[in-house]
Amino acid sequence: MEIKQLEYFVATADHGSLNKAAEYLYTSQPNVSKVIANLEKELGVLLFERNSRGIKITEQGNLLYTYALSILKNSNMIQVLVKKQAETYFCVSGYQSSILTRLVADLYVAHKDKGIKFGYREGTVEEITDHVSEHLSEIGIVYLAHSQLPCFHHIMWHKKLEYHPLGDRGIRIYMGNQHPWYHRDSIEFDELKELKFMEGTEDFFAMEHHIDRISIGAMQMENRNNAVYTNSDYMIHNMLKHTDVCCMGIDFVSKDYEAQGIKALKVNDCERFLTIGYVKQKKKELSMEAKYYIEELKKKLSEYNDLL
Q1: Domains of the chain: total
Q2: Which residues, other chains included, contact 113 with Cβ-Cβ below 8 Å and sequence gap of 6+?
């Protein structure tokens, strides 16, 4: 069995057509058909049923599909890792964040003459920790509720990672200058129910799932008015700048937002129920770039604390 056979099989299954798979793979339909037929012969099973209306994946094909995706993913990871070993590469994983990405830009400026390639990957807590576990990123920046730390530490153990906390944070409510409350400096807990929010990607560790645990009498977050659902940073910024929809974020605000007409309102009497920190490979020494990035992040956190 060859990787090429699995690539052709997955493409055919995804497109439901030999012709469309051929277009996707930049090859001919007879070539795709031949590769699939050879794979079926090698495995001794029928992967697709052929008829006058096209093809349909079989039960055996569905079973192979799941494993084929896993094999192709691991194959791609191996290629990436081998390529990285031939060059100096530093990547951080984190959330959609102006501050975290700006630190990568600053790191690039400080080290651009050293021939280093830089990267930043966005994702949920699960995706960020996967990136570090799979060596796609050297470090991952996460924040999560204190109540989730026992579960998170179990995940760290399972993925052979370490979590190093850098500080505790509360939340802010981000809104643009189209919002009638834009000129306010703070908001009360019981006023949250009057706002319209954006909700991002499904993430068990997302702060909005745990805010109802930090203050007696706070609104139940399942009753929150979620007007928009998106995982797009561009969508979030456009909704904040041009509508009265808000979003919830960590109390660690970039100055860049003010220049874009976006403000972060303090939530009065909000406990610092979030911990922010970084994850790394267990017992692995950090590179100079990673140490630099973390130290700069610590400085940003300290500077922000002084402003509070």
Answers
A1: 3
A2: none
